[in-house]
Amino acid sequence: MTTTDTAAQSQPFQAEVAELLNLMVHSVYSETDIFLRELISNASDALDKLRYESIAKPELMADGGEPKIRIVPKKEPDTLSVIDNGLGMDRQELIDNLGTIAKSGTKSFLTKLTEAKDGAGLIGQFGVGFYAAFMVADRIVVTSRRAGSAEAWTWSSSGGAGFEIAPASEEDAARVVRGTEIVLHMKKDAAKYLEPYEIERVVGAYSDNIQFPIELVPEDGEPRQINSASALWQRSKSELTPEDYAQAYKQIAGAFDEPAMTLHYRAEGRYSYAVLLFAPSTKPFDLFEPARKGHVKLYVRRVFITNDADLLPSYLRFIRGVIDSEDLPLNLSREMLQNNPQLAQIRKAVTGKVIGELESLGDKDPEAFGRIWDAFGLVIKEGIWEDYERREKLLALSRFTTTKGENRTLKQYVEDLKENQTEIYYLVGDSIERLKSNPKLESAAARGIEVLLLTDPVDAFWTSAPLDFQGKPLKSLSQGDVDFGMIPTTEETKDEPEKPETDEALTIAAIKDALGDKVSDVRASQRLTASASCLVAGGLGPDRALERMLAQQNRGAASKPILEVNLRHPIVAAVAKANAADAADLSLLLLEQAQILDGELPEDPAAFSARLNRLVLRAL
Question: Could you state one GO cellular component term attached to this entry (predicted)?
């Protein structure tokens, strides 16, 4: 041990930790109970890690007794201790785990915590649960000895700019044989957490399903276990109540909302495993963080292995819970996790079960399913692109806003197909309001054809795959040719304006000549009934919405669009009759109007303004 190691050292917190602690120390939250839940959860993780490492090194369990968590309140001198005999931490691990936050999304967490009126619900979502203890403590002292180590270390902080780390005193080292002791020096307004009944209330609410015994050591009595210490997922469904599941969800997921869906079953046969999974009812802030992993924990015979086993596909990454196998080897390495055929079978089976349960929920409890869809529909739709095998099921599961209303299913769409309609039509854009006013809907509306209105960024991607539902292909109104000729118009729209006397070939040629290479083609439109023009993409390649998105991300330039014109419109009819200068102005105006209606700016706004003024003055 070097001189530097043996001397007490003061170190600053990482910038994000200092900012977080400042919020913890100087803010008041309505739910301070969570600090104890977080400390117990950390202790349970440490015990899990010890059990796992002791498989290869049984000697790690030699000293320190059977795994358990102890809670010791003392009114003199107002301290609350949370003690585990788990894996423990060495000096560097104390610095790394308690002095930094190496978690993606921390900045987002801090932003949301600063903005929130009540930030209690945000604690724990980014791995910062330990710092919740500063809501109730003026000072925290952590003494830890890593299993198998001769050295114990003490970390201490008052929640200011930094912390101090030093070798543990002889007395502390003798007391902490293995694991971690966290001593909270409680604030005066947090004295209630020194009362045994209050500790029992919090443990019962949040930590009853922790699989290790939690002992309360009162000052004037015998230690007693205050949790059931049973793996709830191994119990029969008939034994459990909705309240049991809600508590298990909050403990397993570290969440504060209620689960919108619970899936609990045991698979028997070639492979045996227990499954307890939940769908949250609210969206976490890091749902789209690139480094976000799944939150399904893998256990083997009740021994925690990892939460990084990819037990569900990425489009179900919002699902939380536990899968506990009876057959997998306990010494699973990372490589074995990636290549284990049994895990692949479990993943496939559980994915199917989750999708099936979501389908069932959509039929039986549309309100609960609606909460899941509102929070996670964006993510589920990623699967339509990624998971070819389950594409039809995910399409059936999806809910859409259409020209007929909200929360429509494709099953409902197909049941309401118009006479002679053979395709499912959709339009991708930035907002429902803008899509509803898009001229590409005009001919469809005249025939009462329902159109899916897709506004999520992911919609531009999954619709680029070749898709059909119940044998009906999905067709974009912004791409390729559209033929509504066989679908009759509704009674209200049968009296369409007469087509002006104009030569189609001459009109198209004049517009093409004026626009040159600004467009790839000019065509007469079947999409339009009232508007003069619109832009569409060719039948091959990406839809215009996807092209624009990729171009904005510098992932390719958008191709030249096709300009479709409504030959019944007076401006279009006027092109063939106008002189060369007016024909050029009118043709460019048709293009620029179409760009604006698609949410784009004209290539030269100043020229567009001058051209528009010129045409208006000429008409006056």
Answer: cytoplasm
Per residue in 97-106, pLDDT tens? Answer: 887 554 434 5
Bridge partners of residue 298, in order along the sequence: 306, 323
Residue 224 phi, psi dihedral angles, 5° rounding: -145, 145
Whole-angstrom distance, CA of residue 332 vs CA of residue 301: 13
Report the candidate in 117, 128, 118 with the shortest Cα–Cα distance to residue 30. Answer: 118
HSE-up of 305 (CA within 13 Å, CB side)?
25
* Alpha-carbon gap, residue 467 to 390, rounded angstroms: 12
Give the pLDDT confidence of 205-233 residue by residue, as tens digits: 778 878 899 999 998 889 999 998 888 89
CA atoms of 31 and 236, how far apart (whole Å)? 32
CA neighbor of 394 nearest in space, from 367, 373, 422, 424 = 373
Do residues 402 and 413 touch, judged by C-beta distance below 8 A? yes
Q: Is the pLDDT of residue 466 over 60?
A: yes
- Higher pLDDT: 132 or 263? It is 263
pLDDT at 285: 76
Residues 6+ apart with CB under 8 A from 291: 104, 105
Measured in whole angstroms, how far is the alpha carbon of residue 219 from the centre of its chain? 45
User: In 3-state terms, what secondary structure has residue 418?
Assistant: coil
CB 142 within 8 A of CB 150: no
Judged by DSSP in three states, 253 sits in helix
Name the one residue in this structure whose structure tokens are 């910062």. 128
Pairing status of strand 79-84 against strand 69-74: antiparallel
The residue ranking higher by pLDDT, 295 or 356, is 356
Instruction: Give the burial class of 103: count Cβ atoms within 10 A of its Cβ; 0-12 exposed, 13-18 middle, 19 or more buried.
Output: middle
Examine the pLDDT at 119 and tell me if it is beyond 50. Answer: no
Q: Which helix (H) or strand (E) holds 25?
A: helix 15-26
Residue 357's nearest CA partner among 440, 463, 261 is 261
Closest CA to 436 of 408, 407, 404, 482: 404
Task: Give 3-state DSSP helix, strand, coil % of the chain, rounded to 5.
Answer: 45, 20, 40
For 355-360, the CB contacts below 8 A with 24+ separation are: 355/390, 355/393, 355/394, 355/397, 357/261, 357/263, 358/261, 358/279, 358/397, 359/393, 359/396, 359/397
Domains along the chain? 3-225 (3.30.565.10), 232-369 (3.30.230.80), 493-619 (1.20.120.790)
Crossing angle between the packed helical segments 580-597 and 570-577, to the nearest 10 degrees:
150
Query: pTM of the prediction?
Result: 0.73
Can you give the length of the chain in residues?
620
Annotated binding site: 38, 42, 84, 89, 97, 103-105, 125-130, 180, 334
**Residue ranges at the known binding site for ATP:** 38, 42, 84, 89, 97, 103-105, 125-130, 180, 334
Peptide bond into 77 cis (omega under 30): yes
**How far, in Å, CA of 560 to CA of 536, rounded?**
10
Amino acid letter, residue 350 = V
Segment (H or E) for 551: helix 544-552
Dist. CA 280–CA 317, nearest whole Å? 11
**Mean pLDDT value of segment 529-550:** 82
Parallel, antiparallel, or unpaired: how do β-strands 320-325 and 273-279 relate? antiparallel
